[in-house]
Amino acid sequence: MALWEYRIDDPDGAVDLSLPLPAPRQRQHWQHWASHCAAIDQALGNAKGLLREPWLEFDNPFAGKPGVFFRLDHRRGQCHRGVMAARHQLVPTLTTPWFPPELGGLKLQISHCGLFPSRLSHQQGQIRLNLTGAEQWAWLVTQVPQLCSLELKTLLDLSSLCWSATFDWGVHGLTRLGFELYPAGRLQRASTSQDSSVINMLQALSPWCPATAIEHCRHRHHKWLQESTSGHVERFSHIKLSPNVDGVWSMKLYLLSHATG
């Protein structure tokens, strides 16, 4: 299985890639990343079940260490301990404390954490977080009101989609805000390429997200699979929207491929 990341505002540009971390016995061709994978294994062991489902995120041109995302299992206890265990293993030079954001009793939960050892901001202590919950917008307005425009709220309120906020969090608070947009009822789950819920979401997003660019990215994905793999199925994951203080938004398309056998 692999998750491909296409830039909608640059549909012929570089593509990033994410992969689930293989089990140790399945890493026959992973020698280059052996020490990094061993650190992730150690982090999972130290977290004692608080972290699970690690995915590696490779930024094009794939030169530095990949980032790693973990799903947080809140049923196992206070996930802050698991996040710190992961940071200790993956960014061992950091000794400063890190504290998760105060969510103020709102209906919110941190679903994932991500560490990117090759990114300067993460070398300085920031950690990527994903939120879920009905009151995300109310919390975000208190953190970054300059990014929470009426136009953005109009888009996020579309009935054809659901969403999860993602951002970096560190000593200076929230940075690099993004929104992962999924078809309604499909939060953090993939959909078949021709699912009606995907079609409805893309149609509703057309005023903000050009259909021709999305189709071009999907064609690139399909062509690559035909030329490079066999027995793989294409699936739609989500679109990521990133607002900027200058009012310009960037968008990325995330497409899955996975083996059928």
Which characteristics define this entry?
261 residues; alpha+beta; globular
Describe this structure in words.
With 261 residues, this protein is an alpha+beta fold. It has one domain (2-259). Helices cover 28% and strands 32% of the residues. Strand 10 (232-243) and strand 11 form a beta hairpin. Helix 1 runs antiparallel to helix 2 (79-90). The protein is globular and about 45 Å long. The chain starts with a strand and ends with a strand. The mean pLDDT is 93.
List the helices and strands and how they pair.
Elements: E1 2-7, E2 16-20, H1 34-47, E3 51-58, E4 67-72, H2 79-90, E5 109-115, H3 120-123, E6 127-132, H4 136-143, H5 150-156, E7 161-170, E8 173-183, E9 191-192, H6 196-205, H7 211-228, E10 232-243, E11 249-259
Antiparallel strand pairs: 1-2, 1-11, 2-3, 3-4, 4-5, 5-6, 6-7, 7-8, 8-10, 9-10, 10-11
Helix pairs in contact: 1-2
Strand fraction equals 25-35%
Which H/E pattern describes the elements?
EEHEEHEHEHHEEEHHEE
Query: Termini separation (Å)?
Result: 11 Å
Question: What number of domains?
Answer: 1
- Rg, nearest Å: 18 Å
Q: How would you write the strand order of the largest sheet?
A: 1-2-3-4-5-6-7-8-10-11
Mean pLDDT over all positions: 93
Percent in helix? 25-40%
Oligomer: single chain
Total helices: the number is 7
Biggest beta-sheet profile: 10 strands, antiparallel, barrel
Structural class: alpha+beta
Number of strands: 11
Described by the principal axes of the CA atoms, the overall outline is: globular
Unreliable spans are: none
